[in-house]
Amino acid sequence: MTEQTTTVPVGAADIGVTGLAVMGANLARNFARHGYTVALHNRSRARTDQLVAEHGDEGAFVATETLAELVQSLAVPRRVLIMVKAGAPVDAVIDQLVPLLDEGDIVIDAGNSHYEDTRRREAALAEKGLHFVGVGVSGGEEGALHGPAIMPGGPEKSYEALGPMLEKISAQFEGEPCCAWVGTDGAGHYVKMVHNGIEYADMQVIGEAYDLLRRVGGLEPAEQAEVFTAWNQTDLASYLIEITAEVLAQVDAATGRPLVDVIVDEAGQKGTGRWTAISGLDVGSPVAAIAESVFARSLSSQRAVREVARETLAAGVDEEAQRAPQDTDTFVEDVRQALFASKLVAYAQGMDMLAAAAEEYGWSLDLGTIASLWRDGCIIRADLLDVIMQAFGGRDTSRHPAPGTRAPGQPLNLLFAPEFAQAIAEALPAWRRVVGTAVAAGVPVPVFSSALAYYDGLRADRLPAALVQGQRDYFGAHTYLRVDREGSFHTLWSGDRTEVDGEGVPVVMPQPTEGDPTQD
Ligand code: 6PG
């Protein structure tokens, strides 16, 4: 610790927040509103002063000039929350902070950091006796102020000093905080990343529904606002459906047109969805619906290419196919069911990758508890999340299944939970009709169709992967397994095409036994 150099009260504040752009400022205010004394720091002092001037009456703030002052003002163990842009700025703040801290102090990164960075930082700070906690925070600016969903990782021990504070400022769902320690080192940021991957898919399927209702169903944005408002009373009820209705109802003041029609159709992204898709590939979890939603944003951004494509490429669609095959109400209900089923698949994929990552990184992730954190406060909050939580055995913050295992009774895949298997079975006819209609009409539905392909792939008796294995063996001697015998095998494709085992020993075919019905 450095000597005291200023007049800020020493050891008086419960938590320090550095980085006072909107998210940091709102989290700081949220802590203060819950009775905590919050020390404030920002690279430029003006933001600190502005926060105190505008919101000083909301609670107890200690304005500080430097990180040294911020640290001095904190009670022990010191809790310093960093809310700066992910990447190098986080490392820069950590480098300045570390020499000022003592063993047992806690550094919290509440930004959208990549989990590998968090793992690296956690290991580096642990060597110095410091706790580094990567915390996923969801809910946007409003959530940060009024109660976000909070997904803390880091050393479990740090949760004793930090958890109660985070739980207090988090959203509450039926009396339970949307906050719980999720696992060691980067687990918190990983869970938040997957939340964002699901968020991307959820937004994209809503977009696909809108596109179909517009281009095939002929419903204008204002009419669709009513449809989405009605859908919000069904099992689709969620924050994203609710705000979709509001966006679609919005009329542009300048032109009098629906706002959605004057917004450029190019979706931005800061990277968390892309990270989710990449990590899905890394841990071997087929998060195709999530990845498709990221690709859909990328494609939307290729505006120059799209412009040429519009002029150059044929549609191959006849006019008839561009009209809804059923009456409007039936079509709307079909689309609703397709949306629900596709959304469920995206959640199933997100949950599957969490389980795969737990095994890969040695985390003990409880899927029921993680789903419980998303029931309120976050962007994907939805009635469905309570049902998903139940499907994974409910919330139990003391349940820490060994990495790579599920707690007893948890389904291997979310879709296997009886209520979801049933719900999908009911939605299937509509889901298939909608994907078929979209394909015939030339309306792209990458996530609707990819989710359906995942579902069909999961439940297929036989996949063409057998043929792929044959091809791999042909050109690369990669070997294959057989359905009827243990071990790996290779066919001598460029030789006499007999089969050898993994050691290259010719396989002697068992002679067919007399009367064996499987043999000619
Ligand atoms: C949240 C949001 C938040 C966010 C991201 C995603 O959970 O509060 O996910 O983290 O809006 O920045 O934004 P992009 O769509 O720009 O990637």
From TrEMBL:
InterPro entries the UniProt entry points to: 6-PGluconate_DH-like_C_sf, 6PGD_dom2, 6PGDH_C, 6PGDH_Gnd/GntZ, 6PGDH_NADP-bd, 6PGdom_BS, NAD(P)-bd_dom_sf, Pgluconate_DH
Location of the region described as Disordered in the Swiss-Prot/TrEMBL record: 500-520
Reactions it catalyzes: 6-phospho-D-gluconate + NADP(+) = D-ribulose 5-phosphate + CO2 + NADPH
Residues at which NADP(+) binds: G19, L20, A21, V22, M23, G24, N42, R43, S44, V84, K85, A86, N112
Leading EC class: oxidoreductase
Keyword Nucleotide-binding: no
Top-level taxon in the UniProt lineage: Bacteria
Pfam families tied to this protein: 6PGD, NAD_binding_2
Biological processes annotated in GO: D-gluconate metabolic process; pentose-phosphate shunt
EC number: 1.1.1.44
Ranges that cross the membrane: none
Keyword Repressor among record annotations: no
MF terms in GO: NADP binding; phosphogluconate dehydrogenase (decarboxylating) activity
Pathway: Carbohydrate degradation; pentose phosphate pathway; D-ribulose 5-phosphate from D-glucose 6-phosphate (oxidative stage): step 3/3
UniProt family annotation: Belongs to the 6-phosphogluconate dehydrogenase family.
PANTHER family named among the record's database cross-references: 6-PHOSPHOGLUCONATE DEHYDROGENASE
Function noted in UniProt: Catalyzes the oxidative decarboxylation of 6-phosphogluconate to ribulose 5-phosphate and CO(2), with concomitant reduction of NADP to NADPH.
Protein name according to UniProt: 6-phosphogluconate dehydrogenase, decarboxylating
Origin species: Micrococcus luteus (strain ATCC 4698 / DSM 20030 / JCM 1464 / CCM 169 / CCUG 5858 / IAM 1056 / NBRC 3333 / NCIMB 9278 / NCTC 2665 / VKM Ac-2230) (Micrococcus lysodeikticus)
Gene, per the UniProt record: yqjI
